[in-house]
Amino acid sequence: MRKALATGLLFAAVLTPTLQGCLPVVAASAVSGGALATLDRRSLGTQTDDETNEWKASSRVGEKYSENVHLNFTSYNRRVLITGEVPSEEVKAGVESIVSAMPQVHGVYNELAIGAVTSYAQRSTDAYITTRVKTRFVDQGKFNPVHVKVVTEASVVYLLGLVTQSEADPAIQIARTTPDVRKVVNLLEIISPAKAKELDVRMPEPRPSPAPASPGGG
Question: Would you put residue 208 in left (φ > 0), alpha (ψ -120 to 50) or beta?
Fold first, then answer.
């Protein structure tokens, strides 16, 4: 049951791998009651802040840097991962400065590369790698894949999430052994098993449908 649910959530997510900020919306529409939001270990407030951080970062940085740059912003637990390519160290530092100044950002992982922007072919490969890693998470069945966010840039896989060490270890190993992955960057936040249990919210049991009233009321 749990694996089937995780698989459904995964496929809802990977249908649009390039629309990372829209992931909760896509999954919630695929599973009634907003199952992804319920299973997420982040609070609803934190999830909202993360979505807001992503579009605000894109908007604010785009106002200053729009030429010869390729930028992606992924916020998880109010920490923003910046990936892509920029033409100089000055631009790289400038992008980080803008994002760091945002009030709901509690940390920045600046993984920008200095150089020419990647091709659309490379970005398609990256999207495929992300899908492949997520699919292997489900196939292996060693942890709930909803708890690990996967981002791929130039064949480098970044892992984010709130996980226990026993969840982090297989996630990293699976990502590392996925074909075409050049490198894995571990940005997972480790929590205790007790904390994980506290944060995990069980899906409510479905209520049985009421029995139809008998004809004539009797």
Answer: beta
